Amino acid sequence: MSADYQATEKLNVNLNATYNMAEAGMSGISLTEPFAPTPGLPLDIFYSDFEGRIGLVENYSDLEYTQINISLGGTYDFTERLYVTAMTTYSDFDSDEEYVYGDESGSVYYGSLGVGYRF
After folding, report:
1. Which among 104, 30, 99 has a CA at the least distance from the CA of 62?
2. Which of 17, 33, 51, 62 lies 20 to 30 Å from 76 when distance is taken between CA atoms?
């Protein structure tokens, strides 16, 4: 969602808001061992529980993320050519599960300030 408002002849204000929810998962994986393990080799331990380990993919692929971004900014024209612009943003990211890359959830505020000249 975005809104743009000309408050005065020299001041323009804008607001942006975004909400995103993503969900994904896998189910019904059916794989067989690529080859029979040779006893005593390092891969023997891995392949001894091949089906159990592949079954974990279904659990680890059950992901859900939400993200919110809200920005408020504006531009003020000192003259027809010289202006200043400012913006501040709040961003929140939430991951329902921590087993893929750890806890990815967090919030941040950031902003910018700039001076411009139109040629």
Report:
1. 99
2. 17
Task: For 7-54, write each residue's pLDDT tens digit.
Answer: 999 999 999 999 999 988 777 666 655 555 556 666 656 556 666 666
Task: Point out which residues pair with 71 in neighbouring strands.
Answer: 16, 89
Rounded to an integer, what distance in angstroms lies between the CA atom of residue 73 and that of residue 66? 24
Nearest-angstrom CA–CA distance, 77 and 13: 12
Domain map of the chain by residue range? Answer: 1-21+65-119, 26-61
For the chain, the maximum distance between any two Cα atoms, rounded to a whole number of angstroms, is 81
For residue 85, which of 77, 93, 96, 95 has the smallest C-alpha distance? 77
Taking only the tens place, the pLDDT of each residue in 76-90 is 999 999 999 999 999
